[in-house]
Amino acid sequence: MAGIHVRGGTIIKTTNKGNPIAYPVQQPDGTWTTTDISARLVKRIQDLGFDAVVNIGGDGSQKISQVLFERGLNIIGVPKTIDNDLSATDLTFGFSTAVQIATESLDRLVTTAESHHRVMVMEVMGRDAGWIALHTALAGGAEICIIPEIPYDIKKVLQKINKRYAKGRGFVNIVIAEGAKPALGNVVGEKSKDIGDEHIKLGGIANYLKQQIEESGCPAQVRTTILGHVQRGGTPIAFDRILATTMGVKAFELIQNGDFGKMVTYKNNTISSVNIEEAISSYNILSKDHYLVRTARSLSVCFGD
Ligand code: F6P
User: Fold this and answer.
1) Which is the closest atom of ligand 1 to the Cα of 58?
2) What CATH number is associated with residue 189?
3) Mean of pLDDT values over 26-48
4) Pocket test for ligand 1, best of 19, 80, 232 (most atoms within 8 A of CB)
5) Residues 80 and 105 in one domain
6) pTM
7) Are residues 115 and 164 in the same domain?
8) 115 CA to middle of ligand 1, Å?
9) Cα-to-centroid distance, 90 and ligand 1 (Å)
10) pLDDT tens figures, 247-303
């Protein structure tokens, strides 16, 4: 398909709903239940004569890849998600583009923070991993970065804000990940309405933080921006296009060699592969002593801890 290197999103109209292992089915009484249709799906794909399937997606998608592989499907995983949540690969494609968009957005918000001496809170995606938030905070020069891996203490956040306002007309830029949570609280979101989807639809922690700051009596004006799906769309940056292309070529090689049940990886500047089983064995979150966390702390970025 020509010209798809400049497009984001799914081209053949796949879905991130309808997990074949917990597929929604309506019962005669109208209520919904879920059932495992993976064996039926594998048979259908084989009957249609497909040699192999390349499953392009993140942690959740690759868990499905593994089940389908175990049911006999010739499948290869390719790691694509803005969340960067697969630990077998240093980077998933889509992630760097999301960081670029989020950074450009933060650059625009800094203008208002500085001009009107405000606290600007920008919420980014990433589910339970703080990769997008931390990269954006570093690239955009935020003073506070709140990530799921480090539950925040509102007192510490207020200390940082007050310190910046103490000498006069301060301003603060905060990047907060959608999966962030207060040390004494929970994530903000709503239960998914999709049958069989147990995930909480994250979103709104920025507004909760704004409320906490205002209720503390902090005189600074606070404004929030929830970036949402803006960071998931548009034209991929060059790095992601190259990563997607090289991973695609590697996936094709694996298929040619009949080396199924593998996920393509990008580690230490090398394209390789691992068993999908291994790829999904641990979720990729930031460790507290990750070099980016340490770098940010050296620059006096506050994590609220
Ligand atoms: O997994 C990718 C992701 O963009 C997450 O960062 C986010 O929480 C979620 O998908 C949003 O999903 P939806 O588009 O279904 O609202």
Assistant:
1) 1
2) 3.40.50.460
3) 94
4) 232
5) no
6) 0.95
7) yes
8) 33
9) 20
10) 999 999 999 999 999 999 999 999 999 999 999 999 999 999 999 999 999 999 999
**Which ranges of 257-301 does DSSP label H, i.e. alpha helix?**
276-279, 291-298
Alpha-carbon distance 200 to 181, whole Å? Answer: 13
Amino acid sitting at position 250: K
To the query of whether residue 153 is one of the catalytic residues in this protein, the response is no
Asked if residue 145 and residue 292 are part of one domain, the reply reads: yes
* Cα of 143 from ligand 1 centre, angstroms: 26
Q: Is 108 found in the same domain as 67?
A: no
Kind and range of the H or E element at 271?
strand 270-275
> 72-75 — which CB contacts under 8 Å span 24+ positions?
72/42, 72/46, 73/42, 73/45, 73/46, 73/260, 74/255, 74/258, 74/260, 75/260, 75/261, 75/276
Tell me which residue range forms the domain holding 134.
95-234+287-298
Q: Are residues 60 and 102 in the same domain?
A: no
- What CATH number should be reported for the domain holding residue 61? 3.40.50.450
Q: Is the pLDDT assigned to residue 60 strictly greater than 80?
A: yes
Domain count across the chain = 2
194-232 confidence digits (pLDDT tens): 776 778 999 999 999 999 999 999 989 999 999 999 999
Residue 258 identity? G
Does residue 1 sit within a domain?
A: no
- On whether residue 2 sits in a domain, the answer given is no
Ligand 1 pocket residues where CB is under 6 Å: 58, 81-83, 125-127, 178, 201-202, 232
Q: Which of 29, 36, 83, 289 is catalytic?
A: 83
CB 177 within 8 A of CB 151: no
- Residue 25 reports pLDDT greater than 80: yes
Residue 20 domain flag: yes
Structural domain includes residue 61: yes
Residue 231 Cα: closest atom of ligand 1: 4
